[in-house]
Amino acid sequence: MRRPASRQAALLSFRDGPRSQRPAADGITSSHKRSDRLAANSEDSSIMSASSSAENQPPQQQEMRIENMEARFPPNTNAATKRLVQGIMRRTITPDGIRRLVRKGADPRVCIDLITSCKPGQVRVECWHRVCLLTLAIDDWSTPPALECGMQIGAMDMNFTNARLVLPLWPSRETQAAILSALIQEGVSLSGPPTPPAPAARTLTKSLEPIEVAVRAANLTAVKTLVANGAALQGRRVAFLRQERGVRSSGQYEAALMAMLEYLVKLDPSLATEADDDGYNVILTAAASGLTYSDKFVIAYLQLMKDNGASLTVPQPPPMFQPLHLAAHNSAHHVIEWLCQHLSPAHINTARGGGAHRTALGIAAMRVADWQRQEPSEQRNETISGMQRAIRTLLASGAAIDMVRTPQQLPAHATQSERDAHGVVLAEYLTVLNDELPQAVMDGVNGALNPQRDAADMLTRLLPLARPAPPTNPTDTSTAAAAHAPAAPSPFALTDATAQVAWKIGAFLHEPEAIDTIILGQAVVAHRIKTAMQHFVEYAATKTAFNEEVIGGMASVGGQVVRVPLQCFAVREGSSVRRVGLREVVHRARLDEAARYGLTGVVKGFNTHLGNDDCQFGWGQLGWVNDIGLFQPLGIK
After folding, report:
1. Which residues fall in a compositionally biased region of kind Low complexity (predicted)?
2. 3-state secondary structure string across 36-68
3. Given Cys at both, which of 326, 362, 493, 594 links 404, Cβ 3.0 to 4.6 Å?
């Protein structure tokens, strides 16, 4: 069927074959046959698949492929313009060749339409993607190239055509920059073509500015050349990660992309704070990037954007997903863990609008339940493991279990995954109580006392070297006489007294504020344990003679010889008190927390032959004994 006259246009056509590399009069060289040319028939010539020989290609060259698409000129395009376009697409033209063709009548401002189609259901849909010569001249070795992504149609579940558009690369970055500069000097617009009007019903139209294509291609050379010539950056989402269907990353692409992003935000930090038409900022987009990019790259990207002002809590428009919600919804466990390092418990517990579970913790648990119902696979197992770790990170960072609805609190129509979410959270919380909470307590105490320990160790070695000045002879004040005078023995011999002096001096350097950097999760247990840690650190730093008292010695407890660390707490039992250490207090808090949520299986980890008997006390009974022997309540409720 002939196209209507208003839509008649010349079509590009390519064929394969070797050809001399000698430049033609207009500066075009090609590895293809001289008979290759733009189709002369403007009405019914269609584009052919194209590829160039892989033999003798430079290391970073790529094969030309044009499949399942048309590239259509405007009506009445002259031969010089067609030759210019062909030289750009084949990478066979020089800057001088561009200028000579323009003098012969070629229009450097020409735009061509890349046309592809698909048939979702019973209706065929066309996509027209209009591009200018600057866009076609930008090297793109991403997978798939940005222009190829632009020809995709429809949502993830639609039938879309397998269009391919891969262009060769210029011989060098310098050549590419010279070509782009020559096109700009000849009048090609930096803003690219306007979006074309739809020529018929069921037709989609698109256009991309050259700077957008250069950014998506991670082509820093092209970006710098365009920016140097005045290309605008703001409002074009140039700091956003690509989200197109089928984008596949690689280490080489990610390195190039990161270098380009660092250049852009250094040039204009406000690019990190932009939002797209749907209200997404760069952090939200990264949280939704799925498996496209490596975890290492995404974390580096998030840090770069945060350092340049990107908000970590800005909500998407309804359903009001914040980045943490979106990361949980997309099973982006590495993003969840990174965000938890930078968000307060209040932000972590922010509830979105709508849904069975409205906090990031509930959404993440629901996604784990979803994955657990899928057929076993490597991706499934890795995602479940990563999400379980992310849930533990959320819990350790203060995510509230009570904000995850139990099955009894959900409506009757709730899905099984929504009902299982609470159980998923509790299973991970038991792991937190057994493994991560005790480790966090140890890290906090050691962080507070290690500066004192280091100083005491150093002083213990240095103090014995400190000797008083030798006596001087009033009648002989020469330096030589003083040097040969007998030295008095050091008052700091290597004795326990020396170690005690060193420990007491080191106490000025202990850092109780290190406890505040440790996040212990749920509010009640965190309050109890941090209060106990603060007392322990103060007592250990100021009331002991040396570090060995803190570590404790061996003693018989319940018929077994075990190590007994510093016991600076007292449990009041009537008129007497019972001494206990920090680990007993922490275990008491863990037992109470487990009982609160109906959990069993809390592992004690010390004095197991005693069971939990040595940790039985009420919080009102817990305190310490002061210097004159009086019991002082610790004030934990």
Report:
1. 40-54
2. CCCCCCCCCCCCCCCCCCCCCCCCCCCCCEEEC
3. 362
Query: 0.85 exceeded by the pTM?
Result: no
Q: In what order do the strands lie in the sheet with 576-580?
A: 576-580, 569-573, 622-625, 631-633
Q: Specify burial of residue 340 (Cβ count, 10 A radius: 0-12, 13-18, 19+).
A: buried
Residue 213 token pair: 């294509």
CA distance 593 to 619: 13
Question: How does DSSP classify residue 354?
Answer: S
The residues, any chain, with a CB within 8 Å of residue 143's CB and separated by 6 or more, are 247, 248, 249, 250, 253
- Please state, in angstroms and rounded to a whole number, the distance separating the CA atoms of residues 161 and 607: 68
DSSP state of 117: E
Residues of 517-541 as b/e, b for ≥16 C-beta within 10 angstroms? ebbbbbeebbebbbbbbbbbbbbbb
Tokens of 392: 């533990």
Calculate ∠ Cα 357-362-367, nearest 5°.
Answer: 100
What H or E segment, with its residue span, contains residue 183?
A: helix 173-185
Rounded Cα distance between 97 and 177, Å, is: 15
Least confident of 396-410, 509-523, 603-617: 509-523
- Do 309 and 317 touch, CB atoms closer than 8 A? no
User: What letter represents residue 161's amino acid?
Assistant: T
pLDDT in tens, 129-167: 889 999 999 999 888 888 887 666 544 444 356 788 899
Beta bridge partners of 110: none
Task: With beta carbons less than 8 A apart as the criterion, state whether 425 and 401 touch.
Answer: yes
Domain ranges of the chain: 1-225, 433-465+492-633
Cβ-count burial 70-82 (b if 16+ within 10 Å, e if not):
bbbbeeebeebbb
3-state secondary structure 531-548: HHHHHHHHHHHHCCCCHH
Question: Which is nearest to 401 in space by CA: 385, 424, 384, 418?
Answer: 424
pLDDT for 380 equals 96
